[in-house]
Design brief:
Keywords: Membrane, Transmembrane, Transmembrane helix. With 326 residues, the chain is an alpha+beta fold. The chain has 4 domains: 43 residues; 102 residues, RNA Polymerase Alpha Subunit, Chain A, domain 2 (Beta Complex), CATH 2.170.120; 85 residues, YbbR-like domain (RNA Polymerase Alpha Subunit, Chain A, domain 2, Beta Complex); 82 residues, RNA Polymerase Alpha Subunit, Chain A, domain 2 (Beta Complex), CATH 2.170.120.30. Helix content is 22%, strand content 48%. A hairpin with a 4-residue loop joins strand 5 and strand 6. The protein is elongated. The relative contact order is 0.10.
Length: 326
């Protein structure tokens, strides 16, 4: 107690010394002038945009709202500063409530809440001194269905680039299909849903990311997010020996080439090389070209390659040949 008394004595001497008395007086008048200025400022007339919550109520149990109306409206109000502060910081506004049955068009699966109905409810909550200048948006739309739905696949949307020694092997979604709810006409038009644009540069490693699905007006998508997996693969240069086949040969004529096989060089993902075989390539000699342009060597052509390979080319384009009559 003795120590507390000594501390209090030091504080009192400090506060009420001649210098600090003048400082305290200065602070008092500064506070007083600030209070007068604030009162005068709040007594002026201002315009303020305020947000008012919106609720769609009494929705039937068997109805699925596929596209909710906006959850807030923006109202522009003119009044004294004191009143506007009350509106803004005093949690003054109650949610605007609109009954589902009043606005729902059963045939169209669509409802529209007009601006006039929003204005009426906002006006009822304002002081008599306040002037309501505007309510935005001009209308509130909502869409609904009574359980109509179907499953549709998820598609990629965006752009992914890999570093030079890699390529994009494939993308995968989990789940790969989602349930969409909408009116029958809209459901008949829907074939798939897309993710929100996903862009990635210089990809090297596998990535897994949760992505949102692109919003569609009047459609509810469940779930509205999916797990995207992106798999890059290392590019490798490989070769394979492919037999030469003669085409457009006349009856009784046989074409023999030396060698009977040629090497095809191509680029492919390292993980896919084992899935490639020689019979997936087609190397040919066209007798029609050979007969129209006779030469000591015949030209071989690479006509088809597997979808998984790129930059395929023959190591030799001309080979020796022999035509035999059977």
């Amino acid at each position: 107690m003795h120590n507390i008394g000594k501390i209090w004595q030091v504080i009192r001497n400090f506060l009420f010394s001649a210098l600090n008395k003048e400082f305290l007086i200065f602070l008092f008048f500064l506070f007083l002038s600030g209070a007068f200025w604030l009162m005068m400022a709040l007594n002026e007339t201002y315009e303020e945009e305020l947000k008012v919550p919106v609720r769609l109520v009494n929705v039937p149990r068997n109805a699925v709202v596929t596209d909710e109306p906006a959850d807030t409206v923006r109202v522009m109000v003119r009044d004294k500063g004191f009143t506007l502060v009350t509106y803004k910081y005093g949690k003054w506004f109650k949610p605007l409530s609109f009954k589902f049955a009043t606005y729902a068009d059963e045939d169209q699966g669509h409802g529209v809440i007009p601006n006039a109905d929003m204005v009426k409810q906002v006006q009822n909550q304002l002081y008599g001194s306040s002037k309501l200048l505007s309510v935005k948006p001009e209308k509130l739309d909502f869409y609904f269905t009574y359980g109509a739905s179907k499953q549709v696949p998820v598609k990629f949307r965006g752009k992914i680039t890999t570093s030079k020694t890699y390529y994009l092997a494939h993308t995968e979604f989990l789940p790969g299909t989602v349930t969409v709810y909408a009116n029958k006409k809209r459901l008949d038009q829907l074939r798939y849903v897309e993710i929100e644009p996903f862009n990635y540069r210089n990809l090297q490693d596998t990535i897994h990311k949760t992505v949102r699905l692109q919003r569609i007006v009047g459609v509810k998508i469940v779930p509205n997010t999916v797990r995207l997996s992106v798999y890059p693969d290392v590019l490798t240069e490989e070769t394979i020996d492919v037999p030469i086949t003669a085409i457009n040969m006349p009856p009784g004529m046989v074409l023999r080439t030396f060698p009977s096989r040629v090497t095809v060089r191509f680029t492919i993902g390292a993980s896919l090389f084992r899935t490639v075989s020689a019979d997936q390539f087609k190397v040919v000699v066209d007798y029609d070209e050979l007969s129209s342009n006779p030469a000591d060597k015949c030209t071989v052509q690479l006509r088809s390659v597997p979808r998984t390979v790129s930059k395929a080319m023959l190591e030799v384009e001309k080979v020796d040949y022999l035509l035999e009559q059977q």
